[in-house]
Design goal:
Rossmann fold, alpha/beta, seven-stranded mixed beta sheet, 12 helices, binds MU-OXO-diiron, Rubrerythrin, domain 2, Metallo-beta-lactamase, Chain A, electron transport
């Protein structure tokens, strides 16, 4: 089946109503997904992206209903991941000499997956264009790390359509293709889930890249993504949302996540939430047992929050494994501008809380006081937990609290629980210090002034402020603006 998109552009993609896992089992696609491929028939016939490899044969048979495959002049691969380039082997077996246009990095990935180095690859860079006749051109824009090193977008002049690949997409399946035709609540939930779980680590790159694209002053009538809807009604609304989400996004929201062996840590979570809501009813408070709830929803809530509390019982002197797992994932997502605190109940020792607090700090959260309770919290301990929630509400308030709520907490707490002042705040070191190392926020490569960077003629002893402005991370190719002081 196909869907008319605009003028001579046709959707020839594949819906996937039943997919529930992406990236192994790390991303739950609760609303399915789609793999959007587009066929342009101008004086030249162009195919933009393919579909997931598991639909290769269906895709090619469907495409043959639209065009004689031998009449395809160019194939554009905006991104080489298997959900977009997966059908290349099936397609190229029928038209092996057709030119493929993609970034240099994409060739590495396509060859790595399909093992056909003899294919007719043509490398493109930002600003390169391809004349497709009838006065129209395709202009290419590299978008490295949004979200893979090979990613790019393709802009079609005259029709003013931006084929954005993963960016601005959603894992969302619907019989309708256009954004104005689908349930808006579902759509924007999936947009935010997609950004929070996939693009958050690269937020520092989103704004400069969008600014670069806007700098071309090209009109945009549609944004044709490779997952989910085509944005035709007010297409730049999703661009504006990306700019907002990339700017250290937070809402007046606190997320509490935990796992519990004997219900005791869950009791603490409830009491802490009560204390927060009591002092600051403006705050949205959400509680999740990480062992029982959709992980990607929890991470989306973390993305939305100004702060999080992470709790675990102590088991074998460490935290429970599902808490450790989500902490590792949060470290990878590199959330910014968020506070955090650990809590948990223990029997023989309280090692979990200390370890959580350390992991939160490693993940760049600004940590505040932690809380431990021994065994099942009694009435006194539950009151300590509520008071802990009140303290958190005061400390994390985004604006002044009402007079009554802003009163300081009691000087002494009952002895049934223990507040643990661990790692009060991340160290802050000026980037101008002579020995200050700097870390790339995209790939975590570390610049050490003691060694410099030989391949770019940065001599040993060069402090960061003297490193040339055109310096690029030797690992991922990003510029100086994505580097942060290294606290390790
Ligand atoms: Fe939709 Fe990065 O693949």
């Amino acid at each position: 089946m196909s869907i008319h998109v605009k003028n001579n552009i046709t959707w020839v993609g594949q819906r996937d109503w039943e997919v529930r896992d992406f990236h192994g089992t790390e991303y739950k696609t609760l609303k399915g997904s789609s793999y959007n491929s587009y066929l342009i028939k101008e004086e030249k016939n162009v195919l933009i992206d393919t579909v997931d490899h598991k639909f290769s044969r269906d895709f090619v048979l469907n495409l043959m209903q639209e065009i004689d495959l031998d009449k395809i002049d160019y194939i554009i691969i905006n991104h080489a991941e298997e959900d977009h380039a997966g059908a290349l082997t099936e397609l190229m077996s029928r038209i092996p000499n057709t030119p493929i246009y993609c970034t240099e990095n994409a060739i590495d990935s396509i060859n790595g997956h399909h093992h056909h180095p003899e294919w007719n690859f043509n490398v493109v860079k930002t600003g390169d264009s391809l004349d497709i006749g009838n006065g129209k051109k395709l202009i290419f824009v590299e978008t490295p790390m949004l979200h893979w090193p090979d990613s790019m977008m393709t802009y079609m002049t005259e029709d003013a359509v931006l084929f954005s690949n993963d960016a601005f997409g959603q894992h969302y399946c619907d019989e309708h293709l256009f954004n104005d035709e689908v349930d808006q609540t579902e759509l924007f939930e999936q947009c935010q889930r997609y950004y929070a779980n996939i693009l958050t680590p690269f937020s520092r790159l989103v704004t400069p890249k969008i600014t670069e694209i806007l700098g071309f002053n090209l009109p945009v009538s549609m944004i044709a993504t490779s997952h989910g809807v085509v944005w035709r009604d007010n297409p730049t609304q999703i661009v504006e949302l990306y700019l907002k989400w990339a700017a250290d996004y937070q809402e007046d929201r606190i997320t509490i996540l935990y796992d519990t062996m004997s219900n005791n840590t869950r009791m603490m979570a409830d009491a802490i939430a009560q204390g927060i809501a009591e002092v600051d009813p403006r705050v949205a408070v959400k509680i999740y047992n990480v062992a029982r709830h959709d992980k990607n929803e929890i991470l989306t809530q973390v993305f939305r929050s100004k702060g999080i509390l992470v709790g675990s019982s102590t088991m074998n002197n460490v935290m429970m494994p599902k808490v450790a797992g989500i902490l590792e994932e949060m470290a990878g997502l590199r959330f910014r501008n968020k506070k955090a605190s650990a809590f948990g109940s223990y029997g023989w020792n309280g090692g979990a809380v200390d370890r959580i607090q350390t992991r939160l700090m490693d993940a760049s959260f600004e940590t505040t006081i932690a809380l431990k309770t021994k065994w099942r919290p009694d009435c006194d301990a539950m009151e300590v937990c509520r008071e802990h929630g009140r303290t958190i509400a005061r400390q994390w308030a985004l604006s002044p609290l009402p007079e009554k709520a802003s009163q300081p907490e009691p000087a002494a707490a009952p002895a049934a629980a223990l507040e643990v002042p661990v790692n009060a705040a991340p160290k802050s070191t000026a980037a101008g210090d002579a020995g200050q190392k700097m870390v790339c926020s995209v790939c975590l490569w570390v610049y050490d002034p003691a060694t410099g960077e030989d391949s770019q003629d940065v001599a040993p002893g060069t402090v960061w402020s003297d490193v040339p402005e055109d310096f690029l991370c030797p690992e991922c190719g990003m510029g100086k603006d994505v580097f942060d002081p290294y606290e390790g």
